Structure formats: structure tokens, C-alpha cells
Amino acid sequence: MDTEARATAERDEKMIQEAYQDLLNGYLQSNHRKKVEIIERAFQFAKKAHSGVRRRSGEPYIMHPIAVARIASREIGLGSTSICAALLHDVVEDTEYTVEDIEQHFGPKIAQLVEGLTKISGGIFGDKASLQAENFRKLLLTMSEDIRVVLIKMADRLHNMRTLGSMAPNKRYKIAGETLYIYAPLAHRLGLFAIKTELEDLSFKHEHPDIYRQISEKIQESEARRAAVYTDFATPIKEKLDALGLEYEAKARLKSIYSIYNKMETKHLPFEEVYDLYAMRIVFECDDQSKEKGICWSIYSAITDLYQLHPTRTRDWIVTPKANGYQALHLTVMGPDGNWVEVQIRSRRMDEIAEKGFAAHWKYKIGEGDEESELNAWLKTIKDILDNPEPSAIDFLNTLKLNLFASEIVVFTPEGDLVTLPAGATVLDLAFNLHSEIGMHCIAAKVNHKLMPLQTELKSGDQVEVLTSKSQMPLPEWADFMVTAKARTRLRKGLRALRQPMIVKGNEMLTRWLADNNLEDNNMVLTKMQGIFHVGNRDDLCYQLGAEEIALGDFLVKPLRKASQKQSKGLLSKIPLIGKMVSSASSTPEEPEAPAKPTETPKINTKQIYQLRTDGGIPNYTIQACCSPIPGDDVMGYINEEGNVEIHSLDCPRAQVLKAAYGSRIVATEWDTDAGDRFLAHIRMEGIDRMGILQEIIHLISTTLGIDLRKLDIEASAEVFHADLWIRVSDVDIVNDLCARTKQISGVTRATRIH
Fold first, then answer.
1. Residue 713: how many CB atoms within 10 A of its CB?
2. Ranges of CATH 3.30.70.260 domains, the chain
3. What is the pLDDT of residues 213-247, one digit of tens each?
4. Which of 42, 153, 466, 687 could form a disulfide with 84 if both were Cys (CB 3.0 to 4.6 A apart)?
5. What is the DSSP letter of 471?
6. Predicted confidence band at 586 (pLDDT cuts at 50, 70, 90)?
7. Alpha carbon separation from 429 to 83, 96, 383, 408 (Å, rounded)
């Protein structure tokens, strides 16, 4: 080994040992039982397994498992079993060791956690498998057996996001997209608020680096002014709390960059008009849990003695915690500068649960508490979804996403039991939540003693009695009246059970008829039959056959035989690596090879940045109507089934799903369009109406700026006008310039682009 290599090895070893010692120091300061020996063994095992391997950033690979273990220990509060699993989480996937080896060295519990964290190949979705969706499914299946699996996975994802800068752009979009779509909501649902916030901010930073930097700079610029306003607001409150003799910590809680951006986008506000940039958080010390509620309300009383209370924005999550275990008392009051300020009141116990989620419950657990049963109920719902997976990756992720709601309502049964549901839940959601049989036979409900139909949307505080009838049978269209994944999954399961006898009968009829007519039971034949009978899948086809809604006959034989022959001819083309060799070996004089097809769409290299350009008037991409991006927007490409590139804005809802489900088809893009290309942009304006204002706006757009105005909708009500206009532009700078100039017209108070 030469001198330079030896020096590098020594530097690496020193860095590894310092990181490991930092992990151990944090663990030893926790109140977990001190099982240092097994952690040391796991560290040495993982270090040896990953020896010589480096991450993309250049550091030794073992630094990643150490970092994940540190997050699991310090930021989530997990113990030695989880630390060992975190240290070993990539060993089975990336080295020659197996789960059996892990079990032999560290026992069944650590091996089970490692297996749950190990990625898999193959999938439940058939030919159109999404490996990402399948990995989520396996992760969640293991989670239903041991919640620590998903908590360690959160630590793994957080470290990957913290070190995402070394990845290729398309990989960054994929990882940031699935983080924002699945992992951040999952962190929220598990009560990991600090991790959820950081995941959102990091995803946003990698998808929109320029906007992230601009908002960061504006936050820094306004820091001194904000600190002065907070001091004016907080000082009288602290004096009151000191007089009460409380031991507490009070601090300003700044809104995350991602949530500021979201507010700017949804409300169409500039940064300067986002007034609720901070909230005040008061965390008090209290050793007796039974006294927490009284102290919260005494602090509430002290604050409302000083400031005017907002009448509709008080939230009591002490008596009825959120489904993720969150407890606190929130109130909103008018600050001395004339803006509303939210104040969050928590005990130290509530604060730890808010930041570390269900992991913190173990520290405070006394027998089987409400929070734990709430977690078990949620895990049971997840298991229901996983036991009956959707046929496609995107449907599966959307169904899962339905269960990660942020806003919730609480309703009461006639006996007074509490049921937590997502906002927007209906009578049917409640019925299926209570029991599958209640849902299947639900006919109506008494909501606050008044008879209401199945689709009635429930509100927090409603008392609901579900009415059933044995003669009632479920209908597929009930799914349109549901918002919970649990209800939809149970409805589908029930419908399948009712249909199954007919499907079996129809399948036997179909198999027998195909055999009698010497037809193969293959994809092309089935697809042709589904097209002829206008059904979506084989089960629907067999159901209609079994129910005698359709019949098989001689009219089908000829088209199905052609379809079967096409399947046979097309088989070789499905094997790109050996198809050419087999094809030339099997061609015969009796059946000459077909002439070559015209040039096909070239295969796109997802590792390279794809240039978006127009050649001869024909773009090499398609713009999707869901977000209608224009040059200058942060966009990504998605390679669709035809091999063409679809363009989406990075934060388009459809793009979020694609990134989470089909990361391997995401391609980083760069605008390289001709200056003559034109794209449609939508602008919304509002202001104080006056004579001639419309003429000034149109003159600015068409004459001064020479922009092509395609459509204009304007409406004035009393003294206020609202206008929507669509223009054709070459890039986003023209849109921004137009909005800025329009706001200089007397009377126009707002002009913003609508995506």
C-alpha cells in the first residue's frame, strides 16, 4: 500500500470511529437499557461487510448505516435492537450475507427488522410492476408486525435526503418525489413531526433550488424585524407565566420553507403577504400527567387576558388527541402588530410525542393506553389494504395515500364511543370503519337523530347511528361516496366475495369454449374478447358470462384466431437481448421475415439530461394539461408506455404520483426551445374596478408588450373585478414581467400565474 493510500485509509478509519463513538455516546445518554456489546458486534459486522465500498459522495459506505442508527437513536428515540437493525439494514441487500446469517449472529428479532428493510425484486403488479410500490408494500407489511421497521426506514430516508446532492438529477427527482408523496405523509401519520417537516423541506430544496434559496434569503432578511415583533408579543405572556410560578420554555416556531411556499402558491400571495410566518410554542414541565390539562387552560386564560382571541381557531387536542397521538392546546390571538399569531401549549411529555411520534409513547406507556390502541387500529387498516392490493402501482399508492390524512374529524356512536375519521368522511366510511358487515348492509344513518342518506358528509362532533338491512346489497358506485382507504378496500373485498361464484362459473365456461374451438388462453385473445364485450378485465368478463349477461358464439372465433396468431408472432420482440438472435435462427423460407418497421422512437438514456427542443416544428416532448408548464418552469420528464417523454411541472400532483410509482422512468430535463415557440399561460387578476381599467390592461398586453392574448374572462361585482386571461408566451420570464407591470396599473391589486 503506497503512502497516499495508507493516509486515506487512516483518515477513513478515524472518521468511522468518531461517527460510531458519537452514536454510542448518544445511546448511553438515553434512558434505554445499555446493551453496548450487541451494538458493537453489529457495527463490526456491518463495517466488515461494507469494507472497501464507497457512497457516491466518496465517503466509506459504513458512514451511512452509522448515520441512520444515530437518527433512529437520537431523533426518534429507539433502542439497541433498532440501532443494530439500522447498522445492518443494507448488509443483506448489498453484500453476500443473508437474513439467515443475520439471525444466526443477532437473533430472530433483529433479522426480522433487517428483512423488512431489505428491498425486493418482482412484484404484485404483474408486467407493469413498480418496484417502488412493491417496496412500500413490503415495508408496510412488516410494519404491521413491528412498527420499528418503518421508523428505521424513516431514519434511512432522512439520511438519504440529507445527502441527496451527490445523486444524478433524475434520481434526485425520483427520491424527492416519492419522499414528498409517501414518506412525509407517513411521517406525519406516525407523529414524527420534526422528520416530516425536514423531509418536505429537503424534497422542495432539491426540486426547486432557486425558489428555496429565494425564500431562505427573504426569511434571513426579515429576521431582525420578525424577532422584534415576537419580543413585543411574547414579553407580556412570559411575565404572566412567571407570575403563575410555572417552569416552562417559550420560543418562536418558524414556518417551514415548504409550508411558506405552499401558502404562497395556494393563496397566490407574495412572500411579504404571508403574515403567519411564526407561531409561539410554550412547553411546560409537569411530572403529574393528571395536572397537564389544568395547566394548559391556565396558560390559555393568561394569554386571552392579554390578547384578543380568534373565535374559531381554538383547537383542543388534549381530551381528544389526533390519530397520530398528538396532544396540545392551540389558540390564535391578535398580536400587537395587528396580525394573528398561533400559540401552541404543551407539556414536556406532549412535546416529545409531537416531535418523536409513537416512539415516544413507549417512554411514557402505562399498560394499554388509548394512543397505543389508536396505533394498532391504524396498522390494522394498513394491513387490510395490503391484504387486498390494487391491480396497478399508482392505484395502490393512491389508496395508501388516502389513509395518510392530515386533517381529521371525530364522531360519536350512539353509545358515546369516539371514532376518528379523515375530513370529508361519509356515513359509508363510518359504516365500513365499524365493521365490514355493517358497511355491506348499510341503508342510511341517523346523524344527530335526523335520518340522512349514505353519502352524507360527517362533521366533527356528529353523533351517528348507522342503520342496516339484511336485504341491502352493496353497489360498486358506493366507492364514489367514500374517502377512506379502509372503506374502499373492504367494499371491494365484499363485492369480490359476492361475485366470486359467478366468476368461477364463467371461467369454467370460458376455458371450455376456448378448448372446444382450439383457441389459446393468452393475453391477446383475452384482450380482444374484453374489447368486443367492453369489459375491463378477465374477472368482469367471467362474471358476465357466469351471470349470462353475455354469451360466447361462432362470431368470435375468427377475430380471436387472428389475435392468437399475433401473440405468437410478437413473442420474440418481447425479449430485447436475445430476440434478434432467435429470430434469425428460426426464420424459414416458408415464413420469410417481415420487412423492417420505420424508425422507432430512440431509447432515452435516463442518466443524461434530456434536452427539450423543437425540430422542424415538431417538439420531442408532449406538455400535459394537468399543469401546462412553460420554458423556465422547473420540470421533469416521464417516459410513457409509447417511449415518448411527457413534461410535468415538478410539483404537479400527477408528477408526484409518477415519481413515487415509476422512478425508473423519470428523466431530468432542460429547456432548449426555439425563441419562436409559444406556450399557453393562465394569469388571474383582481382589483378595484374603474372606468377604462380593462382597456389599459389589454393595451399593456397587446400593444406595449406585444403578447398574443388568446382568451379573456372578466367579471365585476360592486367595486371589485376578477379577470382570467390566457396568453401565448415563449417563457416564464415574460409572464413574470407581465404580472409585475400589470400591478403598476392603478386599481390592480393582484396579478399571478395560475398553474
1. 10
2. 679-754
3. 999 999 988 888 888 889 999 999 999 999 999 99
4. 42
5. T
6. very low
7. 39, 47, 17, 13
Count, in order, helices (H) and strands (E) of the chain. 30, 21
> Cα(141)–Cα(138) distance, rounded to whole angstroms?
5
Q: Which fold has domain 372-491?
A: Ubiquitin-like (UB roll) (3.10.20)
> How does pLDDT run across 313-348, given as a tens digit for each residue?
888 988 888 766 788 999 999 988 888 899 999 999
Is 646 one of the annotated active-site residues of the chain? no
**Which residue is associated with the grid cell 372578466?**
714
Tens-digit pLDDT profile for residues 162-171:
998 888 888 8
* Cβ atoms of residues 313 and 287 within 8 Å: no
Active-site position among 12, 94, 342, 696: 94
The residue with cell 381599467 is: 693
Query: In the predicted model, is pLDDT for residue 576 greater than 50?
Result: no
The CATH class of 222-356 is: alpha beta
> What is the sign, positive or negative, of the torsion defined by CA atoms of 167, 172, 178, 179?
positive
Angle between helices 393-402 and 485-516 (to 10 degrees): 160
Stretch 662-687: mean pLDDT: 84
CATH topology (fold) of 679-754: Alpha-Beta Plaits (3.30.70)
Q: What's phi and psi for 280, nearest 5 deg?
A: -100, 135
As a whole number, mean pLDDT of residues 611-634 equals 83
| CATH code 3.30.460.10 region(s) in the chain | 222-356
From residue 702, alpha-carbon distances to 692, 706, 710 in Å are 16, 5, 10
CA distance 338 to 479: 46
- The separation between the first and the last C-alpha atoms of the chain, rounded to the nearest angstrom, is 59
C-alpha distances in angstroms, 657 versus 189, 564, 649?
Answer: 19, 35, 12
CATH 1.10.3210.10 domain residues, the chain: 17-214
Question: What CATH class is the domain 17-214?
Answer: mainly alpha
CATH 3.10.20.30 positions along the chain are 372-491
- pLDDT, tens digit (0-9, with 9 covering 90-100), for 502-543: 889 999 999 999 888 888 888 778 888 888 888 878 888 898
* Residue 429 designated active-site: no
Which of 623, 670, 621, 672 minimizes the C-alpha distance to 648?
Answer: 623
pLDDT in tens, 20-57: 999 999 888 887 778 899 999 999 999 999 988 888 88
